[in-house]
Amino acid sequence: MRRVRWHCRQEGSETPIDMLVDATESTISEGVREMACRVNQDTSSFIKTAANLQRTAHINVSKETLRQLVEGEGKAVLKAMQRAELSPDWSAEDCTTEQQTTRVYLGCDGVKVPLVTDEEKKKRRKDIREKRRRRGRKCKPLPRGKTGADCAYKDFKVGYLYDETKRRRYVGVTAGNHEAAGRMLRRMGSQVQLSRAEERVALVDGAPWIRNQIEFHGLTENIGLDFYHLQENAQQARRGLFGEESDEGGCWVSDLMHTFKHDGYDSAWGTMTEKRNSLGSQKKLAALDRLMQYAAERRAMIQYPEYRAKHWQIGSGPTEAECKTTTHRVKGRGRRWDSANAEAMMALSALHDSGLWNQRWTTLARIIHEFFWWTVFCAAVGCGRIGSVEGLGRGTGPPFPHVGERREVCVEASCLGINWSR
Questions:
Q1: CA-CA distance, 40 to 22, in Å (whole number)?
Q2: Which residues pair with 173 in a beta bridge?
Q3: Which of 300, 319, 316, 106 is nearest to 195 (CA)?
Q4: d(CA 74, CA 184)
Q5: How far is CA 57 from CA 318, 360, 372, in A?
Q6: Among the four residues 6, 93, 270, 294, which has the most C-beta atoms within 10 Å?
């Protein structure tokens, strides 16, 4: 078998046919990779995932190999989503409602993810060195250590776009800061053509950074405060005013939230002011003042009567639920992650919840298919076995089997032991 080897002083050497052989003889096929990622989504550890693969598919793979495989696939998915290579099969114009308008909801929140600290990493390496020393045998040097996190938990960001029925969903994750989350939301909005929706509604928990990023990127002007977050703050004030088990306090907070929901901010502010004037205890005044300050800082976001009149939702429950499902695999007893690996695992969950799983693996199969024909073409050119090429002009590149193009290429690649015509 003859091989063509290309060499460039700046970029080094490359043998195209070797890449094809490596891909063909790969230990773990793409089908097994997808299966491993699917099974891993619903397990609590890589050990259980390996056991499930062995039992259901008779695939024997170690826990460490499986971990590297799944995390590697997750990083590839994350990169594809960041490059917008994976996009939903719906747009804002598809999100029609019973009121005959197009409406898209936007949500974003931060979630705590457990990470391995730098101190824990150093302790692990120290224990491994001590174990090797006691073994008394020469071992392969440890790989270069990675820097761990500076604290046990870090904030990751989850972005969420969905329609009224929640049948169309698009989820994004990032380990970056609030600015990275803003860029992620802008990219997601561009992919679904958010600007074309007649009604764009953001429902958030009131964190200032979320509102600032939505306004900075011009995603929507309709930013609403989640009704249940406001209610949580009202309940906290109720405990400070009336105690934990007071029926009077329960009636007061129920009436207050009813006023917020049906009469609006101004009426609720009057109710709180009236209550404040009747208080004499400094402790109770401080409890009510915290609630009043929380509401005052988010006055523009408290528009529940207007939202209900337009048939808009007033709760960010879908976003809160998505945060739980996205972090389901990375949270749990004894689980600690490197930041990049945790982000990769969350990316796989986001891929599944966005309905892009089949698109990802179909796209991957198409890339492998094109890579095969590219490699065979390069090998045939190097051997001088091309018979005739129609539709291949100067500088147009190899005859990829792209959709929408018809290119007839006849090649006799005896160096590969095949005769093919396409």
A1: 26
A2: 158
A3: 106
A4: 17
A5: 35, 22, 27
A6: 294
Which residue in 121, 171, 113 sits closest to 143, CA to CA?
Answer: 121
Sheet with strand 386-389: strands edge to edge: 386-389, 409-413, 418-421
What pLDDT score was predicted for residue 23? 59
Alpha-carbon span 179 to 360, nearest angstrom = 27
Q: Which amino acid, 70?
A: V
Burial of residue 371 (number of CB atoms within 10 Å: 0-12, 13-18, 19+):
middle
Q: What is the pLDDT of residue 419?
A: 37
What is the per-residue pLDDT for 339? 94
φ/ψ of residue 50, rounded to 5:
-65, -40
What Rg, from alpha-carbon coordinates, does the chain have?
29
Cα(116)–Cα(129) distance, rounded to whole angstroms?
Answer: 19
Q: Please count the other Cβ atoms lying within 10 Å of the Cβ belonging to residue 122.
A: 13
Chunked into runs of 10 residues, the chain (422 residues) has average pLDDT values of 71 70 65 91 92 91 93 94 92 95 97 94 90 84 86 95 96 96 96 96 95 96 96 95 90 96 96 92 94 96 96 95 95 91 96 93 63 60 48 39 36 37 34
Q: Which residues fall within 8 angstroms of residue 331, CB to CB, at 6 or more apart?
A: 113, 114
What's at 4, amino acid-wise? V
In one-letter notation, the amino acid at residue 145 is G
Q: Could you tell me which of 203, 211, 146, 131 has the C-alpha nearest to residue 178?
A: 211
Write down the pLDDT at residue 4: 77
- What is the pLDDT, as a whole number, of residue 77? 95
Taking the mean position of all CA atoms in its chain, how far away is CA 74? Answer: 10
Which tokens is 206 given? 């009131």
Closest by Cα among 297, 301, 103, 296 to 204? 301
